[in-house]
Amino acid sequence: MPARLLDGVSLAASTLETVSAEAVDFAASTGRKPCLATVLVGDDPSSHVYVRMKVNRSRKVGIDSRRIDLPESTTTGELLSVLHDLSSDPAVDAILLQHPVPAHIDERAAFEAIDPRKDVDGVTRTSFAQMAFGEPGFSSATPGGIMRLLDADNVQLAGASAVVIGRSPILGKPVGMLLLAADATVTLCHSKTTDLADEVRRADVVIAAVGRPEFIRGDWIKPGAVVIDAGYNEGNIGDVEFSAAAERAGLITPVPGGVGPMTIAVLLDQTVQAAKALADVR
Ligand code: NAP
User: Fold this and answer.
1) Cβ contacts of residue 257 below 8 Å, gap of 6+?
2) Do 101 and 110 form a contact (C-beta atoms < 8 A)?
3) Which atom of ligand 1 is nearest to the CA of 50?
4) Treating both helix axes as pointing N-terminal to C-terminal, what angle do 172-181 and 141-152 enclose, rounded to 10 degrees?
5) Residue 124 and residue 107 in contact, taking contact as beta carbons nearer than 8 Å
6) Is residue 27 helix, strand or coil?
7) What are the helix and strand counts (H, E) for the chain?
8) Ligand 1 pocket: which of 171, 187, 240, 242 to mutate (most atoms <8 Å of CB)?
9) pLDDT at residue 1 above 90?
10) Residue 189 in contact with ligand 1 by CB distance below 6 A
């Protein structure tokens, strides 16, 4: 395997050491820990696992969590009311609405009910616009984690051709914005892209965010390219055909142990930043 691994586990661990130290300082100066509220609607087993991981990891770094689990039958109005209450609660610094929410809920309306100052998962229009304009604000957690992985390995983005496969509002689109802000030449691919293999073949940096196991074939990868696999499919399988891609890539993220740990690290880092900023305002 000629490719070197981009190790999200160790970068997340060092990020969380800093987060933990900042959480201790915050508690010492305010008399309380930073608090992340998680809101989960419905019974999706994977979403329950993700929320449990986030709550456990919060506790380990000295962040309190308030976990709110709502039934599948929750209406958009009921969810908005919960999110408005959390947004105005001074004991809550950060809010994560686990997505996807059940199909009958207006997800965009729910995201917009989160106070942008507490939007540590970067899902509101305000956060997206701040990211797009390069202004201070919270990035979407997974794209933020991807950019930190690239930065930690000094991947040259200025002038590089970056191809993102996937254009979801929480992953593909925002990571495209962040790559553009880093002066990459960005192509966003999606289900209507006519020749995906051709797009990927000329990419210096490939970001896979599709949600289909091993969909990006190893022989599409340009020799020496940087391959970031954000996909996570049942059985710990990414969106990239890992073993074949690793034969051609220069750098590649493993699944698991690449992007996933960085998503949580960014979420908790942004939680402490939100707590500090709100404490200054108060
Ligand atoms: P999503 O909302 O389902 O979006 C999937 C994207 O893939 C869409 O933009 C879709 O295009 C595109 N796509 C589907 N079929 C395609 C095809 N044949 N060719 C090219 N593009 C195609 O998914 P998501 O929420 O962005 O998540 C993507 C993956 O990342 C999933 O595996 C998810 O589990 C993973 N994920 C991981 C983390 C983490 O922390 N590691 C966090 C979030 C998500 P259209 O827009 O045209 O439909």
Assistant:
1) 7, 8, 9
2) yes
3) 40
4) 40
5) no
6) helix
7) 10, 9
8) 171
9) no
10) yes
Residue 161 backbone dihedrals phi, psi, to 5 degrees: -90, 115
CATH superfamily of the 141-260 domain: NAD(P)-binding Rossmann-like Domain (3.40.50.720)
Is there a shared CATH topology between the 30-116 domain and the 141-260 domain? yes
Element (H, E) at 259: helix 259-281
- Whether 127 has a binding-site annotation, put simply, is no
In the three-class reduction of DSSP (H, G, I as helix; E, B as strand; rest coil), residue 185 is classed as strand
Helical (H) or strand (E) element with 144: helix 141-152
Structure tokens at 161: 């051709």
| Cα-to-chain-centroid distance, residue 167 | 14
Residue ranges per domain, the chain? 30-116, 141-260
pLDDT value of residue 282: 66
CATH class of the 30-116 domain in this structure: alpha beta
pLDDT digits (tens, 9 = 90+) for 111-127: 999 999 999 999 999 99
pTM over 0.70? The answer is yes
Work out the number of other CB atoms within 10 angstroms of the CB of residue 108. Answer: 12
Distance between CA atoms of 261 and 234, rounded to whole angstroms?
Answer: 17
For the record, the structure tokens of 243 come out as 């073993």
Tell me, what's the pLDDT at 9? 98
Rg (CA), the chain: 19
Q: Is 25 annotated as catalytic? A: no
Residues 125 and 182: their CA atoms lie apart, in Å, by: 21
**CA distances from residue 191 to 18, 128, 206 in whole angstroms, order as listed:** 39, 22, 16
